[in-house]
C-alpha cells in the first residue's frame, strides 16, 4: 500500500508517456533528524531532499535487523541513486548514513543548518514548476551499471552475496531477498521492480524469521525498556549518587555508564591505586570518544569529574544505591557488604553484580534482605545492552522498582528473573560452552564444533567463547557448585575437559595466552591448539554439521525451558530477550522459546529425546514441554497462557 502511495506522490499518478513529457508536481523532503525505514522511503520518493547539517542526522534502512527488507520502494530507489554496491552495503547491514556520506553518495541534494532546512526545501519547490525522478527519465542508467549482462554489476553481486553469507551463514533470508530485489529490479522498469520488491517483502513476512525477530527484538524489547516489568504503585526514583564497590573491569564499566548517565559515582576499592585505575578505564573511553568526535572535551571532563575514586567506606554514606562487583567469593562479598551497611542509610538498596552466586544467600549478610537485589551486568558494560535483575526470596517490589529505574537511567535493556544458582543467563549460556567441551572429549573435531556453532547462528564457537570467559573460571564455578550442592551435584561430561585443561595443562584461555586456542605473542590471529588432539584424540567417525548444530542449540533451549518450568524465568519474552542480548543466542530464531515454537514443540521433544538417548540425560526435555506437546501448545500462540507465570513461582 505504501508503495502505491509513494509512487503516486512521485508520479502524480500520470501515464508514463505523459509523465516523461510533462513531469509532475514537485515534492521536497526537509529532514532535520532521523529518517529511518519507511521515513527514509518517503524521503527517497520526493524529488528533492534537504537535510540538516547535524551530527544527529541519520538516513537508513534498519529493516534487515528484524528480518525484513524495505517494502515501500527502498530496495529500488536507493541503488538507482547510489549504485548497487553502496546500496547493498547499507541495506543488507541496516547501518545508517550520516549527512556527509548521504551528500557524497548523491542521496540528498542539499545540506543546510537545521533552522534553514524547511526554508531551503520550500525555495526549491517554488522555483520548480515540475519534477521527475531520475528513474522516470528516458535513458536512465544505474550508477555503476546493473543487469545480468553488465560485467561490473555481475562482479558486484558475486562479491556482495559472498560477503553477506559469510556474515549471516544463510540464516537470514532477508539478506538474500534484498540482493534478489536488486538483481531482478535492475533488469526491469521501475513499476515492475517495486512489485518484485513487494513480493519478496510478503514472502519474508510470511516466514518464521521476521515475525520472531520483530516480536523479540522490537516489540518485547521496547516493552521492557518502557517499564512493562516495573511493579505498579511505586514512585519513580532517580539515582543521583551511586556507590560502586570494586573497581575491576566490571565495576569500572558500571561506573562509566552511570557517570555517563549523569550520576555521581563513588568508586571504592581496597587500595586507592586500584580505585584510580578503575577511573582510568573511564578516562580511556572518554579520550577515545573525543578522538572520534562522539563527545566534546567539556562533556568528557564533566563525566570524569563525577567519578570519585576512594578506599574509604565513609564516602558511601550519601549514596542512593550501592552496587557490589568484587571478586566472586562469598567471604569477600560478606566482608564488603557488612562494612558498607555500617555507613549507608537505613533505606538504601544494596545490589550485587554476581553472575553465579545465589542472591538469597548473599542477602543473609545484609540486615535488610528485602532491600537486597541482584543487578547482573555483562562485559564490556559500555557495549553490552542487557542487565539481568535477580529477585532474592525476600526482595520486595519497591527494591525491584528502584533497580529498574536505575537500569532505565543508564539506558540498558532489563530482564527480571528469580533466584537460583547461575540465574538465567549464566546457567543457560554455560550449556553452550559445556556441550562444546563435551564434544571435544568425545573426539569430535574442534574445528567442526566451532564452525557448526557459527553456522547455527551463534556469534562465535563454544571453544572460542570459553577461552574468553576463561576455562579456569569455569573450573572454579564448577568446584563451588559441587561444594554447594554436595550429593545433589550432577557431573557434566565437560568436567573432565575442564579438569585436564586447568589442573594438568594450565591452559586457562585468552587470559594466559593458551586455552582451546593459541594466542601468538606477535599479534597474529589466534588458532585452535593442535595439542587438543593429543589429549582428546579425534574419533574415526565424525558427526555431521547438522548433528553438532542440533546438540548445541537444543542443549541451550532445554536449559532455558527448565528455567521457565522451575520459575527462574518469569516470562518467555524475557527469556528470549535475555538469551539474544545476554549471550548471543542466534538472533534470527527470536530466542530459545521462539526457536522451540518454530521447530514445533512436539518435534523439539522428539529431537531432544533422540539426543538424550545418544548423549545423555542432560538432553531430557522437561515435563513442561511434554505437556505442551501433548496439548498441541506453543509458547507464543496456542499456549500463550504459559508465557507468563506468577513472580517467585519457585
Write the layout of secondary structure elements.
Blueprint: H1 2-11, H2 16-22, E1 28-31, E2 34-36, H3 38-45, E3 48-52, E4 58-60, H4 74-82, H5 84-91, H6 99-104, E5 110-112, H7 117-126, H8 151-168, H9 173-185, H10 190-206, H11 209-225, E6 241-245, H12 249-260, E7 264-268, H13 272-291, H14 297-305, E8 307-310, E9 321-324, H15 330-341, E10 349-352, H16 359-362, E11 372-376, E12 386-391, H17 397-409, E13 413-418, H18 425-442, H19 446-455, H20 462-469, H21 471-485, H22 495-504, E14 517-518, E15 527-528, H23 532-535, H24 545-566, H25 572-583, H26 592-599, H27 601-615, H28 623-630
Task: Characterize this entry briefly.
With 650 residues, this protein is an alpha/beta fold. It has three domains: 2-207, 2-enoyl-CoA Hydratase, Chain A, domain 1 (Alpha-Beta Complex), CATH 3.90.226.10; 241-421, Rossmann fold; 426-643, N-(1-d-carboxylethyl)-l-norvaline Dehydrogenase, domain 2 (Orthogonal Bundle).
Descriptive overview:
By secondary structure, the protein is of the alpha/beta class. It has three domains: 2-207, Alpha-Beta Complex (2-enoyl-CoA Hydratase, Chain A, domain 1), CATH 3.90.226.10; 241-421, NAD(P)-binding Rossmann-like Domain (Rossmann fold, 3-Layer(aba) Sandwich); 426-643, Orthogonal Bundle (N-(1-d-carboxylethyl)-l-norvaline Dehydrogenase, domain 2). It is 50% helix and 9% strand. The strands form four sheets. Strands 8-7-6-9-10-11-12-13 form an eight-stranded mixed beta sheet, with helices on both faces. A three-stranded parallel beta sheet has the order 1-3-5, sandwiched between helices. Mean pLDDT is 92; it is low at 639-650.
Amino acid at each position: 500500500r505504501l508503495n502505491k502511495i509513494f509512487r503516486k506522490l512521485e508520479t502524480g499518478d500520470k501515464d508514463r508517456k505523459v509523465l516523461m513529457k510533462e513531469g509532475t508536481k514537485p515534492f521536497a523532503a526537509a529532514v532535520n533528524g532521523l529518517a529511518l525505514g519507511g521515513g527514509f522511503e518517503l524521503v527517497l520518493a520526493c524529488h528533492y531532499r534537504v537535510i540538516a547539517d547535524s551530527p544527529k542526522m541519520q538516513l537508513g534502512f534498519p529493516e534487515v535487523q528484524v528480518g525484513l527488507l524495505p517494502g515501500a520502494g527502498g530496495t529500488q530507489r536507493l541503488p538507482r541513486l547510489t549504485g548497487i554496491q553502496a546500496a547493498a552495503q547499507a541495506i543488507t547491514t541496516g547501518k545508517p548514513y550520516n549527512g556527509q556520506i548521504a551528500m557524497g553518495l548523491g542521496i540528498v541534494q542539499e545540506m543546510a543548518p537545521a533552522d534553514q532546512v524547511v526554508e531551503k526545501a520550500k525555495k526549491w519547490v517554488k522555483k520548480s514548476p515540475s519534477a521527475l525522478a531520475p528513474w522516470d527519465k528516458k535513458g536512465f542508467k544505474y550508477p555503476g551499471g546493473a543487469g545480468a549482462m553488465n560485467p561490473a554489476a555481475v562482479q558486484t553481486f558475486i562479491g556482495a552475496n559472498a560477503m553477506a553469507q559469510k556474515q549471516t551463514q544463510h540464516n537470514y533470508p532477508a539478506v538474500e531477498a534484498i540482493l534478489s530485489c536488486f538483481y531482478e529490479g535492475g533488469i526491469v522498469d521501475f513499476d515492475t521492480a517495486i512489485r518484485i520488491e513487494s513480493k519478496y517483502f510478503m514472502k519474508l513476512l510470511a516466514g518464521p524469521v521476521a515475525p520472531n525477530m520483530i516480536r523479540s527484538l522490537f516489540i518485547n524489547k521496547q516493552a521492557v525498556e518502557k517499564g512493562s516489568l516495573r511493579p505498579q504503585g511505586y514512585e519513580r526514583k532517580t539515582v543521583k549518587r551511586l556507590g560502586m564497590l570494586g573497581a575491576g573491569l566490571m565495576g569500572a564499566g558500571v561506573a562509566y555508564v552511570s557517570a555517563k548517565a549523569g550520576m555521581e559515582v563513588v568508586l571504592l576499592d581496597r587500595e586507592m591505586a586500584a580505585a584510580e585505575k578503575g577511573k582510568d578505564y573511564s578516562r580511556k573511553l572518554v579520550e577515545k570518544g573525543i578522538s572520534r568526535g562522539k563527545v566534546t572535551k567539556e562533556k568528557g571532563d564533566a563525566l570524569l569529574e563525577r567519578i570519585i575514586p576512594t578506599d574509604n567506606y565513609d564516602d558511601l554514606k550519601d549514596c542512593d544505591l550501592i552496587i557490589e562487583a568484587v571478586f566472586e567469593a562469598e567471604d569477600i562479598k560478606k566482608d564488603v557488604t557488612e562494612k558498607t551497611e555500617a555507613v549507608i542509610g537505613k533505606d538504601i538498596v544494596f545490589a550485587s553484580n554476581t553472575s553465579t552466586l545465589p542472591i538469597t544467600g548473599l542477602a543473609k549478610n545484609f540486615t535488610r534482605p528485602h532491600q537486597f537485589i541482584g543487578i547482573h551486568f555483562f562485559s564490556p558494560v559500555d557495549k553490552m545492552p542487557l542487565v539481568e535483575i535477580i529477585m532474592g526470596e525476600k526482595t520486595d517490589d519497591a527494591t525491584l522498582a528502584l533497580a529498574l529505574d536505575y537500569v532505565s537511567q543508564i539506558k540498558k535493556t532489563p530482564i527480571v528473573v528469580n533466584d537460583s544458582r547461575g540465574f538465567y543467563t549464566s546457567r543457560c549460556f554455560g550449556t553452550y560452552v559445556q556441550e562444546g567441551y563435551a564434544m571435544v572429549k568425545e573426539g569430535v573435531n574442534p574445528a567442526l564444533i566451532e564452525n557448526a556453532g557459527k553456522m547455527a547462528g551463534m556469534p562465535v564457537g563454544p571453544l572460542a567463547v570459553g577461552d574468553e570467559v576463561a576455562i579456569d573460571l569455569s573450573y572454579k564455578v564448577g568446584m563451588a557448585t559441587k561444594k554447594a550442592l554436595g550429593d545433589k551435584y550432577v557431573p557434566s561430561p565437560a568436567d573432565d575437559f575442564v579438569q585436564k585443561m586447568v589442573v594438568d595443562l594450565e591452559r586457562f584461555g585468552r587470559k594466559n595466552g593458551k586455552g582451546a586456542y593459541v594466542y601468538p605473542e606477535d599479534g597474529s590471529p589466534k588458532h585452535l591448539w593442535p595439542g587438543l588432539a593429543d589429549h582428546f584424540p579425534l574419533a574415526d567417525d565424525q558427526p555431521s554439521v547438522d548433528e553438532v548444530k542440533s546438540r548445541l542449540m537444543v542443549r541451550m533451549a532445554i536449559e532455558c525451558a527448565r528455567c521457565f518450568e522451575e520459575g527462574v524465568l518469569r516470562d518467555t519474552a524475557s527469556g528470549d530477550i535475555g538469551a539474544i542480548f545476554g549471550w548471543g543466542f542466534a538472533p534470527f530464531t527470536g530466542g530459545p522459546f521462539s526457536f522451540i515454537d518454530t521447530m514445533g514443540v512436539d518435534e523439539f521433544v522428539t529431537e531432544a529425546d533422540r539426543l538424550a538417548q545418544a548423549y545423555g540425560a542432560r538432553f531430557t526435555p522437561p515435563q513442561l514441554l511434554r505437556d505442551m506437546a501433548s496439548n498441541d501448545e506453543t509458547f507464543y500462540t496456542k499456549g500463550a497462557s504459559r508465557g507468563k507465570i506468577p513472580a517467585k513461582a519457585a
